[in-house]
What we know:
Radius of gyration: 22 Å
Structural class: mainly alpha
Number of domains: 1
Shape: flat
Helix content: over 70%
Largest sheet: none
Amino acid sequence: MEYTWxxxxxxxxxxxxxxxxxxxxxxxxxxISIGLLLSFPIAFLRKSKLKFVAWLSLAFIEVFRDLxxxxxxVWLFYCLPILLGNNVRLTPFAVAVMGLALNFxxxxxxxxxxxxxxxxxxxxxxARTLGFSRYQIARYIVIPQALWRTLAPTLxxxxxxxxxxxxxxxxxxxxxxxxxxxxxxxxxxxLEFYTILAVLYLLTIMPLSFAIQMVERRLExxxxxx
Length: 226
């Protein structure tokens, strides 16, 4: 029997789908923002001369880089409230932000560490010769260059986090994938809704992909001679 495409149900529920897209974007931005705030300090601690501090940061990176994000989300959703006590209530959205942020932090810390190590040692030696303090070297040389050098992979990691938000549907966060699944159960039109879901993800992600390409070209022009 030939399948007859009918997008009527999709057009009827476009507002619900757009709300799901909005939740996806907010979830991504919250996770990425927290991850950026945490990852840079962890990258510095990873290079600490104190072995215990460096080991702790490495352990954090390895745990949340190697664990599947879905496993982290499910564990945080079901196990963490039990460990914290009955008085603590975590919403699915808060758990999703926490789990995605932990994954982003671990991966981004390694990106920042690679950016720090890519800075030519000659620049640091010249700065010390000129009398720069460690704070001045970090502020004017190390941090700006590390941020520039890691901008493209950071954007790439942001795109990856945006894709991973679909896993939040497993803990009932009303992001676009979860909303689409609910609408399919209500309307019995899976092909139409999954097609629109793919289009919505492309419209959200493709501008970021083009931005990454532009940044990579700029960075190649700026640092290509290092």
